[in-house]
Amino acid sequence: MTIAEAINTGEAQLAPTGVEDPRLNAELLLSHVLGRKPLELRLAREVGIPLQSLGRYRALLDSRATRRPLQYVTGLQEFMGLTFEVTPEALVPRLDTEVLVEALLARARQLPDAPIIADIGTGTAVIALTLAHSLPHARLYATDCSPAALALARRNADTLGLAARVSFACGDLLAPLHHWRLEGQVHVLAANLPYIPSGEIDQLAPEVSVHEPRLALDGGPDGLRLIRRLLQGAPAFLRPGGAVGLEIGHDQAEAVCAVLSGADWRDVEVLKDLDGNDRVVMARRPTQQ
User: Fold this and answer.
1) Could you read off the pLDDT of 217-251 as tens digits, one per residue?
2) C-alpha closest to that of 189 among 256, 139, 102, 116
3) CA nearest 106: which of 124, 131, 80, 133?
4) Can you give the residue ranges of every domain in the chain?
5) 120: phi then psi, degrees, rounded to nearest 5
């Protein structure tokens, strides 16, 4: 079977399942199996595929046809130039999160040479590890309440050669920061916490509602249960003037800003994603507390 025939066959298998853009999915799966970029496949349409590779491709198609996320099928996801292992123990990293990371980088680069940054609810650790990679003098701390997610985060740190730069601990939200004695020491606190309202999860695509961990999705009745708790506890760990950066749902900016304004946070800023939706809220504690 040629590359062109394999992609056509894959598209035909995935299309009836409801997978968005089945042809692209088939192309990406074949690219993963053959270790070649999609553009290379398009330039080699009539090249034959080895039987062993074809068998693996068919197995991956069968998995994706169940609406298992593409990233769980391949086990990998690119994020801001780095490659991360992805498993069902943690949420699939999204492009939207790059907005948060870029904002955190901009804030951290205004700080002293060795800023202390905490990533709460780290999951795959894309935020903590991307920041560590981009800020060679920063010290990173990352927490998660899921031991399985934290094991994944540690593997990603090892693979990227950043394990010595990021400390990990399992616990509820900010609780591990007490273990590290970070009270009043954190320059920037980052969090991409579960923010989907409980009642909306089952309405999402099967890739999300069926296959991603509910623990990483469920933000309570209005989606803000964990965000409120984080903002309540964060001032104890931030330095005067320290900043918090949160990823939020597209319709949550007003509610989150109301929480911040009622608790004496300053310089509140809402940032939009590439689709023009509210996606990130940044805020700073007052210099004098």
Assistant:
1) 999 999 999 999 999 999 999 999 899 999 999 99
2) 116
3) 131
4) 3-66, 80-284
5) -100, 125
Question: Looking at domain 80-284, does it have CATH number 3.40.50.150?
Answer: yes
Beta-strand pair 166-170/139-144:
parallel
Is 173 strand, coil or helix?
Answer: coil
Q: Is 167 helix (H, G, I), strand (E, B) or coil?
A: strand
Residues 204, 69 contacting (CB under 8 angstroms): no
3-state secondary structure of 187: strand
223: left (phi over 0), alpha (psi -120 to 50) or beta: left
Question: CATH fold of 3-66, please?
Answer: Helicase, Ruva Protein; domain 3 (1.10.8)
pTM of the model as a whole = 0.93
Per-residue confidence band for 212, with pLDDT thresholds at 50, 70 and 90: very high
Q: 126-134 vs 97-108: helix axis angle to the nearest 10?
A: 40
* Residues 168, 245: Cα–Cα separation, whole Å: 19
Give the rounded distance of the alpha carbon of 165 from its chain centre: 19
Residue entry with tokens 């309202």: 197
State how far the Cα of 259 lies from the Cα of 231, in Å rounded to an integer.
8
E strand or H helix at 188: strand 186-191
